[in-house]
Amino acid sequence: MNGTVRALFVKLEKGAKSVPRDSVQAGLGGFDGDHHTENSKRRQILLISGSVIDQLHLQPGNVYENVVVDGLDVMTLREGQRLRLGDALVAVTIPCEPCIQMERMRTGLQEALRNQRGMFVTVLEPGIVRVGDAVCGESAVESSLKR
Questions:
Q1: Which of 14, 59, 65, 105 is deepest in the core (most CB within 10 A)?
Q2: How far apart are CA 143 and CA 119, in angstroms?
Q3: Per-residue pLDDT for the chain (147 aa), expressed as one digit of tens each?
Q4: Topology of the domain comprising 2-146
Q5: What is the rounded distance in angstroms from the CA atom of residue 107 to the CA atom of residue 60?
Q6: DSSP letter string over 16-51?
C-alpha cells in the first residue's frame, strides 16, 4: 500500500483559508504553523484521497485537509495503522466526519463526502513532509527498514 503526497496545506488561524506548502514540518502535535497543532491528540493531520478531490471537482485545500494523497484510498486505513508520511511516522486515529462547513461551500457536499472525507493521523516521529513524498503503509515501512 503506497501513495504519493499531491498537496500539503496548513490553516494559519481558525476561519482562514488553507495555505499551500511545498514542505512542512510534522511535529509531535501536528503540522508546524497549523492552528490545530497541539489542540488534539487524535485530530492532528487530516489526509484525504486525491481521487475524492477529483471525483467531486474540488480544489485541493478547499475542504480543509492537510494532505492530499494520490494512489491510496485513505478510507481503507485502520485505526492504529502506522504510515510513513515523508520523513515522519504517523498513526491513523479516526475518520473525519463531514461537517456543516462542507455544506456552506457547496450544497450537497456534506453528504457527498460522507464516508470519504478523510482520516486523521497523529505524529509518532517528527519529520519533514514534502509534495511528491511517498506515503507508505505499515508493511511497506517494515520492508523498507529491512533493506
A1: 65
A2: 24
A3: 799 999 999 998 887 889 999 999 999 999 998 887 777 778 899 999 999 999 999 999 999 999 999 999 999 999 999 999 999 999 999 999 988 889 888 999 999 999 999 999 999 999 999 999 999 986 544 434 433
A4: M1 Pyruvate Kinase; Domain 3 (2.40.33)
A5: 18
A6: PPEEEESEEEEETTEETT-TTTTT-SS-SEEEEEHH
